[in-house]
Description:
The chain is of the alpha+beta class and about 150 residues long. It has one domain (about 25-145). The chain contains three helices and four strands, in the order E-E-H-E-H-H-E. A four-stranded antiparallel sheet has the order 2-1-3-4, sandwiched between helices. A hairpin with a 6-residue loop joins strand 1 and strand 2 (about 45-50).
Amino acid sequence: MAKGGARQIEVGRLPRCLKEKKMILDPLSACDPCVYLLQSTTRPRRTYVGCTCRGARHRLRQHNGELCGGARQTQTGRPWAVRTLIAGFRTRQEALQFEFAWRRVHRRGRHVYSLRGRRNSLQKLLAMERWSRNAPPASEVPLQVFHYA
Length: 149
């Protein structure tokens, strides 16, 4: 037992991002499932919605071509920047359901795929009772939304 009665966990059993035995305060580096919104810095009207369980910072490096494994849709418009991050999903399946729903929320107007349009559709999605027919009730999932400049 550690100080204060907390149980110690072996370093080898921790996720890669927690092996240094420190709390991660940066949500971009967390290993929990999250959904993110990217915006191209060279073509600001281009956006991309994705999901990861490995950390948004690592996934961003893949999209920007620094590491292999980025999505084909993000090959043009590099470099990309994270503009919104949604964390708090309990499982990878919940995050994937949210990403699927965010991409398909009914949008009208000129700014469908712009940053403003994507954030408006996010607000509509967060106001829904369920994201999809098989998704859990939204009130049961404690989501955190982070917006970046």
